[in-house]
Amino acid sequence: MKHISTVGRTKEILESHKFTFKKSLGQNFLIDSNVIKEVINKANIDQTTGVIEVGPGIGSLTEHLAIHAKKVVAFEIDQRLIPVLDDTLSPYDNVTVINEDILEADVPAYIEELLGDCDDIVVVANLPYYITTPILMNFLTARLPISRYYVMMQKEVGERISASPNSKAYGSLSIAIDYYTEAKTVQQVPKTVFMPPPNVDSIIVELKTRAEKKVDIDDEDTFFKLTRGAFLHRRKTILNNYQTLFENGKKRKDEIRALFDDAGIDPVRRGESLALEDYKKIYDAFKKSDL
Ligand code: SAM
């Protein structure tokens, strides 16, 4: 039988189950086996790997994952797809489909229960684009035992995730991702490999979880409040932005200047010019200050 990820088979499955796409759930299904094979190749999946997939759709990517990995756990929110997946994935006994919202699911418990005997756990997904950032941040902040991520997303989000300082795409998301992972874009994906084609361009991003912290932060909420604060107004200096960030900041300009002085960071710089290590210096100075 032909792979699910072909135009003919996809059309056949959609028709036989009378399935209609829900745009609000980001339903754009892959119809190109080559793109899927490349992702699987890059992700270096073998018979010892456990894979978590977010949003299996009708199973286009899931089928290839099932063939290559030891086990696959796939979270799908759309109840209408559960009987479809029961049907399309019936040849594979190493796949568990969970009909839950990925933002609500108890992922650590599922990992322990279903992937506990895998040597290595990897996330591979063509993500629902409308919630790319919350999905990734939920996974990363929970410090799940996942060694790497190969995820397809909207190109602009992928560029922000993997951006370096002094680039247009660099911001607080790039810093958060750099804190948890080593990120890089792997390849661009044309709209034509999806059914229906999305309105936006897509990109595959690789995130390798850092085994050791790049900077040591004990209060991550505060640290990310400081990094986000530096980008409140992109074109403004960090001094101006922090005057807005802190209560009575305008009156406490000297205290804020002293914070940057202590950190050894010029207060007229902009947030986009500072690397993760610079924010760590600001964080250390903040902890010593009364701000
Ligand atoms: N993996 C399939 C493929 O590549 O053909 C489908 C990818 S499609 C871009 C995204 C999938 O995520 C859809 O099947 C959609 O129903 C599902 N989805 C959307 N929101 C979700 C959520 N909060 N939790 C789990 N799945 C979700």
Provide a descriptive summary of the structure in words:
The chain is of the alpha/beta class and 291 residues long. The protein has 2 domains: 7-209, 3-Layer(aba) Sandwich (Rossmann fold), CATH 3.40.50.150; 220-287, Orthogonal Bundle (Helicase, Ruva Protein, domain 3). The chain contains 12 helices and 9 strands. It has a 7-stranded mixed beta sheet, sandwiched between helices. Strands 1-8 form a two-stranded antiparallel ribbon. The longest helix has 13 residues, at 276-288. S-adenosylmethionine binds next to strand 1 and helix 3.
- The total number of structural domains is 2
How are the strands of the largest sheet arranged?
Answer: 4-3-2-5-6-9-7
Characterize the overall form: elongated
Uncertain segments are none
Provide a concise account of the structure shown:
The chain is α/β, with parallel strands linked by helices. The protein folds into two domains: 7-209, Vaccinia Virus protein VP39 (Rossmann fold); 220-287, Helicase, Ruva Protein, domain 3 (Orthogonal Bundle). Helices cover 40% and strands 17% of the residues.
Layout of strands and helices, then pairs:
Blueprint: H1 7-16, E1 29-30, H2 33-43, E2 49-54, H3 60-68, E3 71-75, H4 81-88, E4 95-98, H5 107-115, E5 120-126, H6 132-141, E6 148-154, H7 155-161, H8 172-180, E7 181-189, E8 194-195, E9 202-209, H9 220-229, H10 238-245, H11 253-263, H12 276-288
Parallel strand pairs: 2-3, 2-5, 3-4, 5-6
Antiparallel strand pairs: 1-8, 6-9, 7-9
The chain binds S-adenosylmethionine (SAM).
Family: Belongs to the class I-like SAM-binding methyltransferase superfamily. rRNA adenine N(6)-methyltransferase family. RsmA subfamily.
Binding site for S-adenosyl-L-methionine: 28, 30, 55, 76, 101, 126
Organism: Jeotgalicoccus aerolatus
